[in-house]
Amino acid sequence: MRWPEIAKIFSRYLFAFSIVLIIPLIVSVHFDYIPGTEHPGYGHSTWAFVKTIVITTFCAGGLYLVGRTAQGKLFRKEGLLLVALIWLLSPLFAALPFVFSQTLKSYSQAYFEATSGLTTAGATILCPKHYESHSKNEIPIEFTVLDTPPAHYSYYGTVKPVRDFTNGQILFEGIEAVPKGLLFWRSFMQWIGGIGVVLVFIAVLPALGMGAKLLFQAEATGIVKDGVAPRIRQTARLTCSIYLALTGLQIVLLEIFNQELSFFDAICIAFSTVSTGGFCVRNSNIASYSSPVVEWIIIIFMFLGSLNFSLYYFLIRKQFRRLKDVELLCYLIICVVFSSVVILNIKNTFVYFLNGSSFDVSYSDAVRLGCFQTISFLSTTGFSIVNYNFWPYLSQMILLMSMFLGGMSGSTSGGLKTIRTYLLFGLFKTKMNSIYRPERISVFHINHQPVTRQMTTMVYAFFFIFIASILLGTFVYLLEGLDLQTAFTLTGSMISNVGLGFRAAGPTESVAFLSSFGLFFSSFLMIIGRLEFFVILLLFMPSFWKNY
Q1: Over pLDDT 70: what percentage of the chain?
Q2: What value does the CA radius of gyration of the chain take, rounded to a whole number of Å?
Q3: Which end of the chain is more exposed for a tag (fewer CB within 10 A), N or C?
């Protein structure tokens, strides 16, 4: 293993990461020290980011000294290890602002929140602390899943409320009590995680040569990694440009069509939408805004974020024939069919919104709510406006299936990806035909290209690992004391990077009921799901560490 090369390149990454931290630092300074921008009861996060930048820069300098003798050659083994290290260690540094600001007391909680941001999972540990009304002593949060047998959860909140200095009355609690600089950092982590920390890294840092290609291939998700430009760095920069344009467009639309929405909220929503992340700066998620226009804009950009980014390049270049993509067609069909089933199923039902309101939904409301929650799950974004735990079981089943299917390859979405589902179905059909017509040689095609044996093997292996990981994760969560429905859906949520589950892991709760081990295990599931298993699992093979 060429450790000096790994240390040198990782030091460059940490230097770049420390520069990225300047952006939330500026936001923190704005809200912490400019009069009229923040309530005095909020904690400050400025010095938390300053300390994080100092520590990150110091570690980067140390690694640079270790790798000063590197010759600049990065082979496949080192490239794969470097990608794994970036995703495993980045949350260590990204979590520091939460710890230094004392927003989260436990480092396991901070690491989980940072991992959830960088992997665009969107699950959160943030939840308000509860107190007795008369004595103001903290009391646990009680939650019961009515199952057979019923499961009872008792845990403490993680975020102190913001109180009025004069009378001690609670002004803000939960997510809304977190300093604005940290709320921005949560959403910004999802934005840089959506495009891929490694992809941004190779787009910005020079002189990696073939190493850049190895990093891109190791981090890019999906079956077919089509470069949209001849050079890998040009591809990365072009993808980042499209990503940035979509983000800017959503911010503009949110500000134009809802002027009551603050610019800060619009930025954070756009960061979490285009990245298909799902973090929100309000306790009631998107329901806090009570704006159908905002919800429709989010629906559109959740869908756009779940498309293969190569399609945008072909559209810009007017290569319309390349848009005749079988995966795109399948994904559109899945979106329409799943949304239609949910719409018809929840029509005229009683719906509980996260902002506390509830009423019988009309057909127009059903269209909006059905499309929002279905696309949110399919794109693995994880936004929510209703408590779907009370929806009919058919709708819940559609959302559960959407969680596992995910969006298109080459997008910011997680899950199986549409192309793998299509390929598995095609291979199944081909195999069935060969049973009663063995003399016929059938070759399965995708976009007029034959599916190779290597691609078939990779899809089968991925599907096996996907199912095995869900079963193993569910088993571990059951040992943690979770009920079966919560354990199963939470596992799928972590691996598919959705952030939303069902029952105790539903839209009205956080994952604060997990132990420290459960939080680290959940972080591991999010990372292997983000990297699609193989890169991380290679680290557990003894042969990977041998020098040949």
Answers
A1: 91
A2: 23
A3: C
Written as six digits, the tokens of 294 are: 């905002």
DSSP secondary-structure letter at 353? Answer: B
How many CB atoms are closer than 10 A to CB 254?
A: 25
DSSP string covering 51-73, please?
HHHHHHHHHHHHHHHHTTT--S-
DSSP letter for 131, please: E
The rounded Cα 150 to chain-centroid distance in angstroms is 30
Q: CA–CA separation, 202 vs 198, rounded Å?
A: 6
CB 278 within 8 A of CB 375: no
Q: Of the spans 424-433, 487-496, 501-510, which averages the highest pLDDT?
A: 487-496
pLDDT of the residue at 114: 98
Residues, the chain, total?
548
From CA 506, how far away is CA 529, in angstroms rounded? 20
Check if the beta carbon of residue 130 is closer than 8 Å to that of residue 155: no
Domain ranges (residues) in the chain? 130-172
Q: 217-260, pLDDT tens digit by residue?
A: 555 665 555 555 556 667 777 888 899 999 999 999 999 999 89
Residues 6+ apart with CB under 8 A from 542: none
Residue 208 pLDDT greater than 70, yes or no: no
Query: Helix %, strand %, coil % for the chain, to 5?
Result: 60, 5, 35
168, pLDDT greater than 90: no
Q: Can you read off the two tokens belonging to residue 510? A: 């956080």
107 burial type by CB count under 10 A (0-12 exposed, 13-18 middle, 19+ buried) = middle
pLDDT of 187 higher than 70: yes
Burial class of residue 191 (count of CB atoms within 10 Å of its CB; 0-12, 13-18, 19+) = buried
Rounded Cα distance between 97 and 507, Å, is: 26
